[in-house]
Specification:
By secondary structure, the protein is of the alpha/beta class. Helices cover 29% and strands 21% of the residues. The protein has a single domain, classed as Aldolase class I (TIM Barrel), CATH 3.20.20. The longest helix is centred in the last third of the chain and has 15 residues. The structure holds flavin mononucleotide.
Length: 308
């Protein structure tokens, strides 16, 4: 069964051999996972969030396990875009698998400079814009919580990277996710991925302290799958551009549920912490799962959720 997918964008399409991507921040730069499977068997690899300059991230503890998930406040630690382009990207099999670079910045101008730098890299198929970060130049509110700010970033990245597919990653920590999705579509996004982590907190009762040094963090894993499914369903009905589902996906059945709700592709995040071969086995098992659930093509399944 052919499970290839084309994410038809407003400016650039993204062709994937299958709909299984890895989620940013949960799969390193991809190379760390080569002992667990063939990177080229995936639809795409979304690498750890990159910034213009290297960042040390937050103090520890910054990861804590929760019921059916985990909380993290890693703080977007990374080596910066130059180290990635010089040392990591050339080692990735980018001719065989789509390499999608997740980017974040503290201002619209910084987003544009980062996007322009990556636009010249042949090995980068797409940019995933993480708008779940504070706009320092605008009082620290998150770009992704304000349709105007989210649109401004999208427009800037779109203009700075005309050769790349631009995917905007939406935050669930908003009152109405569809208003943000429509704003970034109008600003030129080629696709949207949803969702980023859900804001949460854990406490250490004996110590009477927060479990994370940062006090609050992002909840991920199977615990957030119902939230992610709801967001994908709402967003897929609100926009025409492709939606990529992410949040608690750990098996082929989960992936098919997201596609049924309207997703064109999916990302595996915390699943790779549970089992490092998770994304590889999910991609391998997808054709058999389609057969098991009577799915004749992913196009036929997508968005066919019955409401009667
Ligand atoms: C440890 C960790 C680091 C993450 N880092 C990033 C990041 O750099 N950029 C980003 O857009 N999302 C980041 N995320 C969010 C994931 O990509 C994903 O959206 C989220 O975890 C929900 O999917 P999951 O439940 O499958 O993990 C991170 C998640 C985790 C758990």
């Amino acid at each position: 069964m052919d499970i290839s997918v084309t994410l038809r964008g407003q400016t650039r399409d993204l062709v994937l051999k299958n709909p299984v991507l890895t989620a940013s921040g949960t799969f390193g730069n991809g190379l760390e996972f080569t002992p667990y499977g063939d990177l080229a068997s995936l639809g795409g690899i979304v690498v750890k969030g990159l910034s213009l300059e290297p960042r040390p991230g937050n103090p520890c503890p910054r990861i804590v396990e929760t019921v059916a998930g985990m909380l993290n406040a890693v703080g977007l630690q990374n080596d910066g875009v130059e180290v990635f382009c010089r040392e990591k990207l050339p080692a990735l099999p980018w001719r065989e698998v789509a390499v999608i670079v997740n980017i974040y910045a503290a201002s619209v101008d910084e987003f544009a400079r980062l996007a322009a730098r990556l636009d010249g890299e042949e090995g980068v198929a797409a940019l995933e814009v993480n708008v779940s970060c504070p706009n320092v130049a605008h009082g620290g509110a998150l770009f992704g919580q304000d349709p105007l700010q989210a649109a401004a970033v999208t427009r800037a990245v779109r203009e700075a990277a005309p050769r790349k597919h631009v995917m905007v990653k939406l935050s669930p920590n908003v009152t109405d996710i569809t208003s943000i999705a429509r704003a970034v579509e109008d600003a030129g996004a080629d696709s949207v991925s949803c969702i980023n982590t859900v804001l949460g907190m854990a406490v250490d009762l004996p110590a009477r302290r927060p479990a994370l040094a940062n006090v609050v963090g992002g909840l991920s894993g199977p615990a957030i799958k119902p939230v992610a499914l709801r967001c994908v369903w709402q967003v897929a009905r609100a926009v025409k551009i492709p939606v990529i589902g992410v949040g608690g996906i750990v098996c082929a059945r989960d992936a098919l549920e997201f596609i049924l709700a309207g997703a064109r592709a999916v990302q595996v995040g915390t699943g790779s912490f549970i089992r490092p071969d998770c994304a590889f086995s999910l991609a391998a098992e997808l054709p058999a799962a389609c057969e098991q659930f009577g799915v004749t093509s992913l196009d036929e399944l997508r968005g066919s959720l019955r409401l009667d």
